[in-house]
Design brief:
single chain, Nitrilase/N-carbamoyl-D-aminoacid amidohydrolase, eight-stranded mixed β-sheet, 16 strands
């Protein structure tokens, strides 16, 4: 599977600008790319208390519809973050895997960073789905600092963990360490895509988008400027990493929650407490 990491300098609250950059990146992808990954809240940037109601959209909204059309035209899949207006009246920091067949997987950030709190509501589940025969799961930024987040995806069979990131200085090294650990602990590939440049509130985003193999080894890493990285993932390496020992098989207990298997291949672990 060939993945492309698109590390961009987004604009907070400027959906039109961010969408234009997203569509451009999709249309410019090489013909042999299977999956394009963007940063956290790529489509709207990070909202505030004052603008969240104005910029958040449902998954059926026009911005994600434009992305859906672009991936259909290109014949590729994309992982992209947005500020979601939920059907329940709450707002969520959400990432979706969208393919030419529609939204294959959605994930609402379960571990809210300090600036998320009071704006977003935490999600209540983890999930994995199949894409081109590979079981993939989604996480968002701060989630990867908690081993149980990636382990929940591992418990759901994840072979590829895709992380939309919005990590800022001085915490870049924290996520470099965390993404390697989460891949190794679950003997899965991990792809993390961060934002660069300045954001609201004088934030400076740290870049450092990366791909890590199932042994926890760094395969590629971006710097601190906007860029695109492409890498072919050797999926046979997942089986090799798990051949002699499996951390999942050797674990002493499962994470709590209700595990649900859907007919379309979607697997969910619904949290018993939020």
């Amino acid at each position: 599977m060939k993945v492309e990491l698109v590390q961009l300098d987004g604009r907070d609250g400027d959906t039109a600008y961010n969408l234009e950059r997203t569509l451009e990146a999709i249309h410019r992808a090489a013909a042999d790319v299977d999956l394009i990954v963007f940063p956290e809240t790529q489509l709207m940037g990070f909202p505030t208390h004052d603008n969240i109601a104005a910029i958040a959209e449902p998954l059926t909204g026009p911005t994600l519809a434009a992305v859906a059309q672009a991936v259909t035209d290109k014949g590729v899949a994309a992982v992209v973050g947005l500020a979601e207006a939920g059907e329940d009246g709450h707002f969520y920091n959400t990432t979706v895997l969208i393919t030419p067949d529609g939204v294959a997987l959605k994930y609402r950030k379960t571990h809210l960073w300090a600036s998320d709190k009071g704006i977003f509501t935490a999600g209540d589940r983890y999930a994995t789905a199949l894409y081109k025969g590979v079981r993939v799961g989604l996480l968002i930024c701060f989630d990867i600092e908690f081993p149980e987040s990636a382990r929940a995806l591992g418990q759901l069979g994840a072979e590829l963990i895709l992380v939309t990131n919005g990590n800022m200085d001085p915490y870049g090294p924290t996520h470099r360490t965390a993404i390697s650990a989460r891949a190794m602990e679950n003997q899965a590939y991990a792809v993390m895509v961060n934002r660069v440049g300045q954001g609201d509130g004088n934030l400076v985003f740290a870049g450092g988008s990366a791909v890590v193999d199932p042994y926890g080894q760094l395969l590629c890493e971006a710097g601190r400027t906007a860029c695109r990285l492409q890498l072919d993932l050797d999926l046979a390496l997942i089986g090799q990493a798990r051949q002699d020992y499996s951390y999942l098989a050797e674990r002493r207990f499962e994470l709590p929650g209700k595990q649900v298997e859907h007919p379309d291949g979607l697997r969910e672990l619904i949290l018993t407490t939020v």
